[in-house]
Design goal:
- Helices cover 36% and strands 19% of the residues.
- The protein is of the alpha/beta class.
- The strands form two sheets. Strands 3-2-1-4-5-8-9-10 form an eight-stranded mixed β-sheet.
- Helix 5 runs parallel beside helix 6.
- The longest helix is centred in the C-terminal third of the chain and has 18 residues.
- It is globular, with a radius of gyration of 20 Å.
- The N terminus is likely disordered.
- The structure holds NADP nicotinamide-adenine-dinucleotide phosphate.
Length: 244
Amino acid sequence: MTSRTPSDSAQQPENAPAKAPAKDPWDLPDVSGLVVGVLGGTGPQGKGLAFRLARAGQKVIIGSRAAERAQAAAEELGHGVEGADNAETARRSDIVIVAVPWDGHGKTLEGLREELAGKLVVDCVNPLGFDRQGAYALRPEEGSAAQQAAALLPDSRVTAAFHHLSAVLLQDPETDMIDTDVMVLGEVRADVEIVQALAGRIPGMRGIFAGRLRNAHQVESLVANLISVNRRYKAHAGLRVTDV
Ligand SMILES: NC(=O)c1ccc[n+]([C@@H]2O[C@H](COP(=O)([O-])OP(=O)(O)OC[C@H]3O[C@@H](n4cnc5c(N)ncnc54)[C@H](OP(=O)(O)O)[C@@H]3O)[C@@H](O)[C@H]2O)c1
């Protein structure tokens, strides 16, 4: 009788097919044909992202609670950006960036559950509080804004990204390059890669996989530190992940 040892079971059987080579993590999909919607796209972050993506050739629709506000902001931005109310924006988009304030996050997403079903949702919301000492991280009941989105949108593909950007730089037409990495979090690799590719459309920006949504809290919270950096150094700080 032969017995198998643990080291035996770890060996490949002789006729096992060769292991496929690991996929190049920088081999990202072509997202140039996807429509990007931005909920809360009339604010500095949403407008800035819309401007950058549209300038890079992406089709962008900005959303608002009032269609006419979105249309006015879209006209200001040019580059083919359109404006609509948040529901229509969600319906017409393949990828939907959530750029509303933390205060309105849960209610906004709850109200758009149907329109967002099947969509790739990208949450960039940073739950922060401010007092006389500056900005500090809040801890949402669900763990993070991204996890709240995932809980409220069971039929959507929720990811998180674009937390650490300066809306001032994004909106400045004189700034050609946005010198920063974008941490992208999510549960499904293919969805994360789409968001990485989207970030990569913006000159200077690189999207990097940074874990699952359960690790979104640290990423969202880090913005409180960046705000402190910006105040001390009068800067619009971004982040770089080295050695990748
Ligand atoms: N600003 C930045 O530099 C930056 C950087 C990274 C991430 N973020 C995150 O991006 C999000 C947006 O930032 P922002 O500075 O652009 O915010 P904001 O100007 O305060 O809000 C963005 C838009 O959201 C809509 N809105 C306001 N209150 C709302 C509510 N209670 N419910 C639903 N919609 C509401 C408004 O549009 P309508 O009135 O037209 O609906 C507003 O123009 C925030 O969660 C922030 O943490 C910001």
